[in-house]
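[job 4471] stage=fold_predict status=RUNNING
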Amino acid sequence: QVQLAESGGGSVQAGGSLRLSCTASGRSFSSFAMGWFRRAPGKEREFVARISRSGSTITYADVVKGRFTISRDNIKSTVYLQMNSLKPEDTAVYYCAADINPSRTIVRTATTSYDSWGQGTQVTVSS
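[job 4471] inference complete, writing structure tokens
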């Protein structure tokens, strides 16, 4: 099992930026794909971004494409989410997640494709 811990959330005004970090422990970080999800108040958890084991394949939700950037550092066992041009509708609790069997994954954006989850970090964007 892998343990995940997010950090970097906070409150910003619209148009601002935040960088989220998620550090993993317990297993070989470079062997699994990583994703970011978010849950806004009153809504279901939704996919934000995913990065492959090597970082060569990246997927974004349409609503964040061009504004958010996912990256990873396998030496530091950390995945990042750089969020620019933030909007009030980006307000949510953000979660990182690990897909420990990425070669078997069919739907990369589904919550069920991920095996371990962090506790989440709150991001609040004010207008």
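[job 4471] summary: The mean pLDDT is 96.
[job 4471] exit 0
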